[in-house]
Amino acid sequence: MATRRERIISLLEERDYSVSELAQVLGIRGKGSKRLILEDIRAIQKVLKREGKVLLIKPAECRKCGFRFKPEINIPSRCPRCKSEWIEEPRFMIAGR
Ligand SMILES: [Zn+2]
């Protein structure tokens, strides 16, 4: 049986996902589920480097003013420009070289 991280890798090799979408597909609920998946993605990024693959990050975006965050493995809670908390999550995908 595949581990959670292995399942995330095969999902991200198919198409891009947000952390919320991954939580839904993997059936991980509750407080801390997003943080858990973010930790998985950080660990996966390190493994991928050794395999010659890359993690592509579509950065988070403010849905109110359009501010673009840095492409990081993190979910910002608030827009630094307009202070809105209506944030589009970053999306992740795995690409081979
Ligand atoms: Zn904003």
Automatic annotation (TrEMBL):
Task: Extract the Pfam families matched here.
Answer: PF0610-like_N (PF21476), Zn_ribbon_PF0610 (PF23470)
Q: Could you tell me which residue ranges the PF0610-like winged HTH N-terminal domain spans?
A: 3-56
What's the protein called, per UniProt? Transcriptional regulator
Q: Which domain of life is it from?
A: Archaea
For this protein, the record's SUPFAM superfamilies field holds:
Winged helix' DNA-binding domain
Leader peptide range in chain numbering: none
Q: Which residues form the PF0610-like rubredoxin-like zinc beta-ribbon C-terminal domain?
A: 59-94
Q: Quote the InterPro entries the UniProt record gives.
A: PF0610-like, PF0610-like_wHTH_N, PF0610-like_Zn_ribbon_C, WH_DNA-bd_sf
